[in-house]
Amino acid sequence: MDTAEFRALAVEDLTEEQAAAELAALAAEIAGHDLAYHQQDAPAISDADYDALRRRNGAIEARFPGLKREDSPSERVGAPAAGGFRKVRHAVAMLSLGNVFDDAEVAEFMARIRRFLSLAADAPLAILAEPKIDGLSASLRYEGGELVLAATRGDGTEGEDVTANVRTIADVPEHLPADAPDVLEVRGEVYMTRHDFRALNERRLAAGEPVFANPRNSAAGSLRQLDPRITADRPLRFFGYSWGETSATFADTQWEARQKLGRWGFPLNEPTALCDDVASLLAHYHRIMAERADLAYEIDGVVYKVDRLDWQQRLGFVSRAPRWAVAHKFPAEQAETRLNRILIQVGRTGALTPVADLEPVTVGGVVVSRATLHNEDEIRRKDIRERDIVRIQRAGDVIPQVIAVVADRRPPDSAEYRFPDHCPECGSLAIREEGEVVRRCTGGLICPAQAVERLRHFVSRDAFDIEGLGDKHIRAFHAEGLIREPADIFRLEDRDGTTAPRLAEREGWGERSAANLFRAIADRRRIALDRFIYALGIRQVGQATAKLLARHYGSLAGWRAAMVAAADRQGEAFADLVGIDQIGPSVADDLTGFFAEPHNLTVMDALQAVLTVDDLVEDGSGDRPLAGKTIVFTGTLEGMSRPEAKARAEALGAKVAGSVSKKTDYVVVGADAGSKATKARELGLTVLSEADWLSMLANA
Ligand code: IVH
């Protein structure tokens, strides 16, 4: 038999001899692909085919553990020498959680769920409450009961393949019992106990290595080691609390799913409780908070999850977080320290932001030397002065904040702080528009700080994600004129050596790092429309808004033309823009303002000349029955709350609008509908009753 013939055999059907030959062939083949992908940057097969090869290798090894080779691909991650882990796309996105901080917000979370599901105030609503562990999330994929892939969360859509490393974690089962679904992605947290963290740091200190700031950083640093032998030496652990893709449903409730995960060998975080109202949630929250210091690992709050999985399904997601779950965070940790100086940073839109330069102090396990002061008014309101002793606080990953001044420790000669009225970077006048809290530098194009910040934003992870082009480099390239505007980044390789020594000959660089940078840049000559929009750094246009715009307009040309046309506030293009759910007049003004600036159009022309911006192709939009349709709900629906109706329509690809126009495709009319229903009939639109709407959903 040759390779192709036994490749066609199912793993269960292989003889031992065939399996050995197949493992040898797979090892060679995968190593070849790794090389092509990582070092030659020329993948020979698709990611999916590559994954299939690795999975087959893993499955054969699981069936014949004795045949595992020394050069087994499951022991290696990509080709470390060229840097980085292989990227993997998550079959089901890995989401984050919204946060609540006080009792009222917990009550609002519950009330919102009841409204969405149209539950009566006294209808039972069970919520599971469990500790929120401070580690990093991972997705473990099992096929046929075997661990075949482990990935970090990454940006939620795409993570990194850390399979070899995760295999070294004793808490993670290699095999699942027969009653587990054939395909099952178990999600949970990789973490380190406090004790292990301290012991690891002692070892590192003794070896003259830098220590980790906290257990979370040390878990993250240990998991993302290119050499799995290093990870194996680090005491990592795992808790399972959720799941991604599954080939079969295995529970009706979160509670039952948890029990199953436990039975299949995954450690579970405790203490957990099933609660049925706000009071019992809060009681459990306080219980966990009281036990917090005694837990072996760090937690930063309590996660509440709607127990019924069918309800979770109905509740769905808003942007990147589920409606059916929320994290109730513990109060922030505080400390006192001296504020040495107030620094003014200039952002990419010219905003002057005050930052406190602090005497370093440890807050909640992390050394803090900077804290945000928000804005001019905050400084005045709190009367914060240089050299004051201040109380600061830090909550989770949030930037530390200055809470208050310790009044009785103020130096006698201190003076009220005066916020600068000129840009500290370029000297231009800094002005505060009527009604704005922010003071902005008016230097625009001549302000180097703004230009550098725009470039930093452009290459940042959620924008063009150009690895190896750090702050320091951008500042230097900008100062010497090598990169003045975003398009220059893509001309860097051609212009290398024309203004100063070649990159490869500079201090801190070499042939290899220069080549890596040029390759990272070349990799991004093709970019998705939403990333492109976000990268432009238009005020108020974050990732979520960029996605909305990309989805609505579909192509760069379409979007650009519409934004130019939307300058006319009375025109259709403007109405269309503000008709997009979640885009209001203020964002619309920032968008049209950006396009009214001739320089910005020049910057875009230059970019369009060097880039390919892909149109947004919606995943499976072909089979989303309401894709491209606009729908308006009016009146009261009996069977479904308004938020749920909207979410269902959007899930089917529709845009939900607030007002009826001739562009509306469907108007769903509930009880007591008013003028919108009348207008829909006048315009001759398709009017649906609630029953029509429900049967549309049933048939979708
Ligand atoms: S559930 C769709 N449960 O917190 C919801 N997450 O801030 C999936 N986390 O990305 C998350 N403990 O890494 C869930 N008991 C717990 C958790 C937990 C920690 C992490 C997780 C998530 C992050 C969101």
Assembly type of the chains comes to single chain
User: What class do helices, strands and sheet pairing give?
Assistant: alpha+beta
Assigned CATH architecture of the largest domain: 2-Layer Sandwich
Fraction of residues in helices? 25-40%
Q: Name the CATH superfamily assignment of the largest domain.
A: DNA ligase/mRNA capping enzyme
How many runs of DSSP E, i.e. beta strands? 26
What is the spatial order of strands in the main beta sheet? 2-13-10-3-9
Q: Main sheet?
A: 5 strands, mixed
Domains, number:
6
Shape: globular
Helix count from the secondary structure assignment: 26
Portion in beta strands: 15-25%
Structural description of this entry:
With 700 residues, the chain is α+β, with helices and mostly antiparallel strands. The protein folds into six domains: 73 residues, Helix hairpin bin (Helix Hairpins, Orthogonal Bundle), CATH 1.10.287.610; 242 residues, 2-Layer Sandwich (D-amino Acid Aminotransferase, Chain A, domain 1), CATH 3.30.470.30; 112 residues, Nucleic acid-binding proteins (OB fold (Dihydrolipoamide Acetyltransferase, E2P), Beta Barrel), CATH 2.40.50.140; 78 residues, DNA polymerase, domain 1 (Orthogonal Bundle); 87 residues, DNA polymerase, domain 1 (Orthogonal Bundle), CATH 1.10.150.20; 79 residues, 3-Layer(aba) Sandwich (Rossmann fold), CATH 3.40.50.10190. The strands form eight sheets. Strands 2-13-10-3-9 form a five-stranded mixed beta sheet. Helix 19 packs across helix 20 and helix 20 packs across helix 22. The longest helix has 24 residues. The relative contact order is 0.06. The site of 2-(butylsulfanyl)adenosine (IVH) has 15 residues, from strand 3, strand 8 and strand 13. 2-(butylsulfanyl)adenosine binds next to strand 3, strand 8 and strand 13.
